[in-house]
Structure formats: structure tokens, C-alpha cells
């Protein structure tokens, strides 16, 4: 991933770069509408991580709704729609970027 600052407070990520490994903890709740259709909601918390060219750490917190269609008892298709909150743990993240 390659980063650069577009304007103060706005981060732009392009290209590829190694990002530290992180961990996620999440959960989903489902409500069965029928034997074949379920709807639900879910959320995750991803630990902070960073790239080799930045001095700050970042994470995403995804929140979503989802639907599940059971084709057979062992096979199903799931669709998700949601939002990812992007969080940076440094007051001025633009200071952590190398020039693009």
C-alpha cells in the first residue's frame, strides 16, 4: 500500500505495501424468516496495525447487515452490506507519511 496526504486529515491509499498482521473479533446475530432465509446483523473489531512507511497505526471497525439463503442444509449463500469506520491512533496522521 502506498499512502499520501491529499489534504489535512484526508488519507489516500494506493498501490501495495506490507501491512502488519492483525486480529479480528466479531459476532453475528441471525433471525430465521423461513427454513431457507435468514437475516441478521454483525460487527467486528480489528486490532491496530501499521505499514512499514508510516509512524501511526490504524484499524477498521466494520458494522453490517446480512442475509443468508440456504441452498441445502450444508450449503448457503450470504450477502453483506455495511460500513467500515476507519480509525487512526495519532493526532496528526499526515506527519507519519513519506512523500509520494
Can you describe what's shown?
With 100 residues, the chain is mainly β. It has one domain. Helix content is 0%, strand content 56%. It contains no helices and 6 strands. The strands form 2 sheets. Strands 3-4-5-6 form a 4-stranded antiparallel beta sheet, with no helix packed on it. Strands 1-2 form a two-stranded antiparallel ribbon. A hairpin with a 2-residue loop joins strand 1 and strand 2.
Describe the structure concisely for a colleague.
This protein has 100 residues and is mainly β.
Keywords:
6 strands, mainly beta, elongated, two-stranded antiparallel sheet, 4-stranded antiparallel beta sheet, 100 residues, single chain, 0% helix
Please give the structural blueprint.
Layout: E1 2-7, E2 10-14, E3 24-32, E4 37-46, E5 58-70, E6 76-88
Antiparallel strand pairs: 1-2, 3-4, 4-5, 5-6
Amino acid at each position: 500500500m502506498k499512502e499520501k496526504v491529499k489534504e489535512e486529515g484526508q488519507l489516500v491509499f494506493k498501490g501495495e505495501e506490507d501491512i502488519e498482521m492483525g486480529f479480528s473479533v466479531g459476532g453475528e446475530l441471525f433471525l430465521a424468516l423461513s427454513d431457507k432465509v435468514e437475516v441478521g446483523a454483525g460487527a467486528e473489531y480489528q486490532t491496530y496495525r501499521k505499514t512499514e512507511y508510516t509512524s501511526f497505526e490504524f484499524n477498521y471497525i466494520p458494522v453490517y447487515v446480512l442475509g443468508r439463503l440456504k441452498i441445502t442444509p450444508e450449503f448457503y449463500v450470504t450477502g453483506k452490506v455495511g460500513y467500515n469506520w476507519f480509525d487512526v491512533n495519532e493526532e496528526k496522521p499526515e506527519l507519519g507519511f513519506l512523500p509520494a
